[in-house]
C-alpha cells in the first residue's frame, strides 16, 4: 500500500507525525551508528536500501493508495536488525514520497510498511531464537520464509483497517478487492526473502546481522 494524502483525514495527521517522530527519535538514540562507520557495512546498507526501493517502484494497483509491491522489510530486519531496517524503510519511503509529492502520507506509509512488518519480523525472530534450536533450516524457513509471509499479511490487514477507518474506501470493497490479493503476495514475498537470505547466509553471512555461522552451522 502506498497511501495518498487525500486518503488520510486531516485530524489524523498530528497523531501520525507524532508517532513517526517518536520512532525517529528512538532510532537516533538507540541505533548502533558505529556500524555505519565501517565502509563495507555502509555500502551493504545503501545497496540493500536501493534494491528495496527498486522493488517498491515495481508495483501495480487497483485504485489510488491501494498498490501492491514487494516490501523487503523482513530481509532488511534480518540483515540489519530492527532499527536500521526502519531507517532504511524511512529513506525508501521518503524517496517514494518525494517522487510522488504525497508528503502528508509519509508517516502513515512509513508506519504501515515499515513499523508493522519490521515489528512482526523482529518479534518472530526473537521468539524463534529463544525457543527453538539453532539450526540453519529453522533460521531460513521460519525467520525468512514464514516471517516474510506473516509480515506481509500483517501489512495487508493493517492497511485494510487503516483505509477503512480513514473512510478512504468501504470495508466491504477492501475485503473483496484488496485484502485477498495482498495475502496472495505473501507467498511471493516469502519465496523471494527465503531465497535471498539463504544465498547470503551461505556466501555472505557477514551481511546478515542476525545470523551467526558458529551457532547455526558448527557441529550441525
Short description:
The chain has helices at 10-30, 34-37, 39-57, 73-100, 106-131, 136-165, 171-177, 179-203, 213-216, and strands at residues 60-63, 66-68. The protein is mainly α and 220 residues long.
Low-confidence stretches: none
**How is the CATH topology named?**
Arp2/3 complex 21 kDa subunit ARPC3
Helix content: over 70%
Shape descriptor: globular
How would you characterize this protein structure?
With 220 residues, the chain is mainly alpha-helical. The chain has one domain (5-216): Arp2/3 complex 21 kDa subunit ARPC3, CATH 1.10.1760.20. It is 75% helix and 3% strand. The protein has helices at 10-30, 34-37, 39-57, 73-100, 106-131, 136-165, 171-177, 179-203, 213-216, and strands at residues 60-63, 66-68. Strands 1-2 form a two-stranded antiparallel sheet. The longest helix has 30 residues, at 136-165. It is globular and about 55 Å long. The mean pLDDT is 92.
Amino acid at each position: 500500500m502506498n497511501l495518498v494524502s487525500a486518503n488520510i483525514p486531516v485530524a489524523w495527521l498530528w497523531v501520525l507525525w507524532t508517532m513517526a517522530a517518536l520512532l525517529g527519535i528512538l532510532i537516533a538514540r538507540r541505533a548502533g551508528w558505529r556500524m555505519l562507520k565501517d565502509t563495507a557495512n555502509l555500502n551493504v546498507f545503501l545497496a540493500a536500501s536501493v534494491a528495496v526501493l527498486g522493488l517498491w517502484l515495481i508495483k501495480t494497483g487497483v485504485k489510488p493508495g491501494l498498490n501492491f509491491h514487494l516490501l523487503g522489510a523482513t530481509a532488511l530486519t534480518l540483515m540489519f536488525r530492527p532499527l536500521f531496517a526502519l531507517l532504511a524503510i524511512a529513506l525508501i519511503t521518503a524517496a517514494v514520497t518525494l517522487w510522488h509529492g504525497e508528503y502528508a502520507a509519509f508517516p502513515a506509509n512509513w508506519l504501515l510498511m515499515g513499523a508493522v512488518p519490521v515489528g512482526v519480523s523482529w518479534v518472530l525472530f526473537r521468539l524463534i531464537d529463544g525457543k527453538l534450536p539453532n539450526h540453519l533450516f529453522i533460521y531460513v524457513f521460519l525467520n525468512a520464509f514464514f516471517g516474510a509471509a506473516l509480515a506481509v499479511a500483517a501489512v495487508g490487514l493493517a492497511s485494510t483497517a487503516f483505509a477503512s477507518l480513514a473512510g478512504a474506501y468501504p470495508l466491504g470493497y477492501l475485503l473483496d478487492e484488496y485484502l485477498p490479493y495482498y495475502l496472495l503476495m505473501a507467498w511471493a514475498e516469502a519465496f523471494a526473502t527465503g531465497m535471498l537470505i539463504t544465498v547470503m547466509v551461505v556466501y555472505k553471512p557477514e551481511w546478515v546481522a542476525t545470523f551467526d555461522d558458529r551457532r547455526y552451522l558448527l557441529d550441525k
